[in-house]
Amino acid sequence: MTDREAILAVAGELRRAQRIGIAGHVGPDGDSLGTSLALAIAARGAGKEAVASFGEPFVVPAAFRFLPQHVLVAPGAFPADPDLVVAVDVGAPDRLGSLAPVAAAGRLVVIDHHRSNAGFGDVAYIDPDAAASAQMVYYLLEELGWSIDAEVATCLYTGLVTDTGRFQYSSTTPEVHRIAGRLIAAGAVPTEVSRFIYEETPFGYLELAGVVMGRAQFEPDAALVWSTVYIDDLRSAGLGYEDADGLINEIRVTAGAEVALLLKETDGGTKASLRSRGAVDVGSLARTLGGGGHHNSAGFNRSDPPEVVVELVRAELSA
Ligand SMILES: [Mn+2]
What we know:
Number of helices: 12
Oligomer: single chain
Largest sheet: 6 strands, mixed
Mean pLDDT: 96
Bound molecules: manganese (II) ion
Helix content: 25-40%
Radius of gyration: 19 Å
Number of strands: 11
Strand content: 15-25%
Structural class: alpha/beta
């Protein structure tokens, strides 16, 4: 199926459905959450009953609390038997977490740009060349003729800004800027979006960043920079896991590091985030270790402690 055929197929599904449940991935980022909310708000504008949600733990990261949440429901309140479930920015069924069973029970549409997405659901619109799922939902809304008001524009703009690293990654094409321009014209305000996401953190984040950056290790021979966030660090800074996501951006700027690795200690193991400058495909590395993602941005979870996980990554990098 070409992208054009996929857009028409998904648009048809959305037109026919009246009760629509939209599901992002667990541990939502700006693209997953923003795009889910945008689609739900636009669907309501078109006269549908629509809600958006994501699997447990149901915590909206502080950086994204400025987004309009009137269409957001906890996973427990997700409709049990909607006409259509739409999975947005979800690379594989397990990324739906606690929403996976309801998504599997009825008709399922998947909209995603992860290269690792093997395709699932009844209709899939997957475009690994899209900069963000927000770009794909923008095309869908254009096709459907559904209104892109200021709220929808703000949500989609958030997806574009975050998934392109503030329009800095190689995915930042003229087309991405064209869409961003349309969204600004429709009411997204770049200074406000950036302030909430990048220019405002709880004071505890400074304490956490100080500890984690002080602990960072640079291994020039492996072109690797890495650090670890321990549960105790979060506790003493009064922050949650979702607040530590930005730390990978603090360490990945190291000159001479092709790959950055942030290890977050969890209850039973480690959550690893990877970033690449381009020479190393960390998406493929993450898949080898049981995760997934994009060429330059990926992650995986292990039931090993952080000190074991860094060994696994080192081994993959030297393989
Ligand atoms: Mn995305």
